[in-house]
């Protein structure tokens, strides 16, 4: 049975050409060996850098290929020195794994509140920044709430206050569905995963590191790709891809490269509009607000929509939709501790649309939700 994928924020369906390029590459590994296959496909694999740099407006050498967003953030945090007094500011939509990273490193941190409308409170942020603020982390679109955050205004404020503060943007849920320009945003670090809105294979991700920061990092995982051994000592190669190590999956990198190429070919603005229109269609349906509650601000919609239905647990709704052939997911306090505490809710159901979803599929979802609510 074919499923309707409304869990694109978890993992989207890859495009046909991405699937076939990965399969073909793996067959090549089988027939000519992993190293020869890599050299044969070098040009196509390296297209990953040109395509991603085009999508985010960075230099080719500011990008590293990694396996996930979590690896990217961990790599970065572990590669930079923190002094005892320095602090990091996060927001109350922070993703659970990002937060764990701070706790694990015992980094001083302050939590800024998002406004009632889902946007950053610039006043609260300004108040919390002090002379020891080293970094500010922000999720462009959170996992558990699809409000699109105006990150350009946040970047402007941060750099106006202190241009040395490192602005770290989590684009895990926005890359591939929203236009991203690292120069306009003024972020120093940006990271994301391939399997979500980029439609890449699972186990892929990336990090962008502004070249001005390259000499401030000391990669936590060294090997002969990112460092040069010299007389019982070593030198870090800062020129290219500092977070990459020698071993990786060229097949998956090739798949991600193709997926990003497809996004650029279609055009991110066109994708953005199609996705937002689908969410707007769902949100425009006159559901009874006493029975179903949506959590996104209608003015800042993305592909991610979350809701609860009165009288049903999130897993009952999700199972019901799965029975109808619809993939969804559930977010809870592990996804974002601060968010669920603030909202005083246990969990939410998440439906996330991509451009390959159709209006017919969204209409079917609405019909299923009405059936569920009315047959209670
Ligand atoms: C906002 C956000 N950040 C980070 C992550 C972690 O991504 P990964 O599982 O690829 O490490 C996720 C995963 O869903 C996410 O939604």
Q: Count the E strands.
A: 15
**Order of helix and strand elements from N to C terminus:** EHHHEHEHEHEHEHEEEEHHEEHEEHEH
Overall body shape: globular
State the major sheet: 7 strands, mixed
Share of residues in helices = 25-40%
CATH topology of the largest domain: Aspartate Aminotransferase, domain 2
Q: What name goes with the CATH superfamily of the largest domain?
A: Type I PLP-dependent aspartate aminotransferase-like (Major domain)
Point out poorly predicted stretches. Answer: none
Overall pLDDT: 96
Secondary-structure content class: alpha/beta
User: How would you write the strand order of the largest sheet?
Assistant: 2-8-7-6-5-3-4
Number of helices: 13
Per CATH, the architecture of the largest domain is 3-Layer(aba) Sandwich
**Which ions and ligands are bound to the chains?**
pyridoxal-5'-phosphate
The gyration radius over C-alpha positions equals 21 Å
Span from first to last CA?
A: 27 Å
Count the domains.
Answer: 2
- The percent range for strand residues is 15-25%
CATH class of the largest domain: Alpha Beta
